[in-house]
Amino acid sequence: MERKSIIVFASGSGTTFSAILEYSHRKDSSFNVASLVSDRMKSGAVSIAKNNGVEIIEYNSETPRILKKKKPDMIVLAGFLRIIEPSLLAAFPDRIVNIHPSLLPSFGGKGFYGIKVHRAAIDYGVQYSGFTIHIVNSEVDRGPVIFQYAVPVLAEDSPESLQERIHKYELQYYPAVIQSMLKNNFKIEKNRFLLNLY
Known about the structure:
Elements: E1 4-9, H1 15-24, E2 31-38, H2 44-51, E3 55-58, H3 63-70, E4 74-77, H4 86-91, E5 96-100, H5 115-124, E6 128-135, E7 145-152, H6 159-183, E8 185-189, E9 192-196
Parallel strand pairs: 1-2, 1-4, 2-3, 4-5
Antiparallel strand pairs: 5-6, 6-7, 8-9
Helix pairs in contact: 1-6, 5-6
Keywords: Purine biosynthesis, Transferase
InterPro entries: Formyl_transf_N, Formyl_transf_N_sf, GART
EC number: 2.1.2.2
């Protein structure tokens, strides 16, 4: 079976990008990582791409035009801190996915990212947090939910310890969910993500 092509967007250390890249090297992977797009050319993600021979594209006003020519099967956000512009959303409808470190719709939206999300969860006193993989649309963190994973919030948790524990599961599940989406047909109906496994 011919592998699908994905392009990853990342701004930070690149741990999530690295997990996706590592998964793509598996014999049973359904995808290849064609390129990395980053708005921070000195980031860890860019270093990982260089070390693995992955094409690097600097994020700017030309990015939508470049990606339209490349025609990836999916765009995967992996710690990308910019809001995706409308022209890119229009070019890849329901084909841009993101991972957010909370059980959306809780602790999502503008201003909620990184350690801020985990601090808000602990300050609120929730018993469970986790992460959400979702389709990206014009509303920040409001796209159709693809997958969620709940993690207990412990009495002794700090924002940092909660973040570390959740992130381990993110690295485990995100590549597998991407794989499943690319191997199977899916559709969006009334803001619900429906995966056809048959």
